[in-house]
Amino acid sequence: MHVSPNKKIYFASDVHLGLFPKEKSDLREKHFVEWLDTIKADAEALFLVGDIFDFWYEYRKVVPKGFIRFLGKLAEITDSGIPVHFFAGNHDIWLNDYLSKEAGVILHMEPFITSINRKTFYIAHGDGLGPGDYSYKILRKIFTSPTMQFLFSKIHPNIAFDFGHWWSKQSRYSKGLFDDFLGTDKEFLILYALEILKKQPVDFFIFGHRHIPMEIEMGNSQFVNLGEWISAYTYASFDGQKLELKSFKKDFDSNHIVRSKIQIK
User: Fold this and answer.
1) What is the pTM of this model?
2) Phi first, then psi: what are they for 32, rounded to 5°?
3) Tens-place pLDDT, residues 238-256
4) For residue 140, pLDDT beyond 80
5) Domain map of the chain by residue range?
6) At how many degrees (to 10) do helices 134-143 and 146-153 cross?
7) How many Cβ atoms sit within 10 Å of the Cβ of residue 215?
8) Separation CA 202–CA 126 (nearest Å)
9) Which of 92, 103, 181, 251 makes an SS bond possible with 74, Cβ 3.0 to 4.6 Å?
């Protein structure tokens, strides 16, 4: 992939469309669509790195109600020739082929490694990666099993979606909408990236999942966590040389971005 002059590649994650309460989710969707409108003029490509929806499940002939402004804008962007890469997160893990067929996005269910302007990018939502969190890793295996998905598909959609939104709400609000930074020696995605660097060179790591905007220097590598769109509205852009973490909010305090350096031996 190549970034043309005056073009950029954009990254965003953790929009959680559909998160309770509905009024705030609807307003967040409008703001996110407004952001998509502002970037489409100079976007070379767009990466949506997981948890764009707070809950998502596709029956064979039924998809979730709502999000029409976002889905329409997504289709408009891909119809214009801008590739959109859409990653499954832990809240929208049950993606199937609806978004690829109807909105033209490129789906990713696993971490994606790509070269952009001869720079290696390692991109993933981040759930289930790194050390620890074994209970979730077991739960993820259950959720991704074909048997589990087959059984869930037999539940009436009204009941299934009520349960899915209840589960998602309980999960998000029980942990809190915003995460605390644990330190570079404890953040599991930072530790995961450091392990990857022992095996192969990577110029840029792009993750979501942790609702903390981070810019961490790892020797010659840069680690970025994209933050969230519940409050901070943070995203990243790459102009072919420089990767920057920004916010769509005019009053965003950049001091809320966690910045640190790690020496690579």
Assistant:
1) 0.91
2) -65, -40
3) 999 999 999 999 889 898 9
4) no
5) 8-262
6) 60
7) 17
8) 16
9) 103
Query: Can you tell me the mean pLDDT for 9-33?
Result: 94
Decide if 249 contacts 213 (C-beta within 8 A).
no
Is the Cβ–Cβ distance between 181 and 122 less than 8 Å?
no
C-alpha span between 226 and 246 (Å, rounded): 9
Give the other-Cβ count within 10 Å of 163's Cβ.
Answer: 14
Single-letter residue type at 215: E
Q: Report the SS3 class of residue 51.
A: coil
- The predicted-structure confidence for 187-201, as pLDDT tens digits, reads as follows 999 999 999 999 999
Q: Is residue 145 pLDDT above 80, yes or no?
A: no
Distances (CA, A) of 93 to 15, 98, 126, 161, 193: 14, 13, 12, 14, 22
Report the C-alpha gap between 67 and 231 in whole angstroms.
19
Which amino acid, residue 23?
Answer: E
Selection from 143, 122, 265 nearest residue 206 by Cα: 122
- Give the residue, 170 or 67, on which the prediction is more confident: 67
Longest dimension (CA), the chain: 55
At 174, list the tokens.
């029980």
**Percent of the chain whose pLDDT exceeds 70:** 91
User: In sequence order, what are the residues at sequence separation of 6 or more whose Cβ sits closer than 8 angstroms to the Cβ of residue 258?
Assistant: 181, 212, 213, 214, 215, 216, 225
Over the chain, what is the mean pLDDT? 89
Distance (Å, whole) CA 225 – CA 213: 5
Average pLDDT, integer, range 94-123: 94
Is the pLDDT at 11 greater than 90? The verdict is yes
Backbone angles phi, psi at 140, to 5 degrees: -65, -40
Q: Residue 115 and residue 121: Cα distance in Å, rounded?
A: 6
